[in-house]
Amino acid sequence: MLRIAAALFALSLTSAAQAQSPGFGIEEIRLGVAAHDLTDHTEDGPQIVGDLLFASPDFLEPVWSPRPFLSASISTQGYTNLVTAGLAWDYGFTDRLSGEFSFGLSYNDGVLEVYPDRDGPVEAQRIKDTRALLGSDWLFRTGFGLDYAISEQWSAGVFYEHHSHGQILGSGRNQGLDELGLRMSYRFR
User: Fold this and answer.
1) Residue 59 CB neighbour total at 10 angstroms
2) d(CA 174, CA 36)
3) DSSP labels, 55-118
4) Phi/psi at 123 (nearest 5 deg)?
5) Are strands 26-36 and 97-108 parallel, antiparallel or unpaired?
6) pLDDT tens digits, residue range 14-34?
7) pLDDT higher for 57 or 41?
């Protein structure tokens, strides 16, 4: 299944290489793979991560013109999936090397808490041992990235994301999730 997905992605990138922006202010698309749940390793396995970055609207100029983004992180192992909306600030170190800081709000379909009375002690322990206990459907997401421009349109990079509610959006559990990955980016002309 993963090979089929990779083949379809390669085909879509080939088509994208000839394309102009698909509209809606989309400026860049990214696709990557990330190691998931780096801290606790209860939800090991790769995540497929995709991003859409939009042109910065004029009203964001007073806060250094961040680009709005939408992101999805999909589990290949049936664990927690996340979708995020936020803002990304870019900084060019050189003509080819750039850094990024991003902040957003993510929604997840993960496990919030263990309920031994409802699930029974054996199932509750299995859940606790195999799933991150997030405590809230909504999490803050902070991210850092470093990208190297291969050409005017293509770049390759590394990224790190942390998803957590920090006891602000929920109470109780807050294990959070960390992801570290590699990505390819295509910037429309």
Assistant:
1) 8
2) 16
3) PPPGGGGGGT-PEEEEEEEEESSS---EEEEEEEEEEESSSSEEEEEEEEEEEE-SB----HHH
4) -65, -40
5) unpaired
6) 444 445 666 789 999 999 999
7) 57
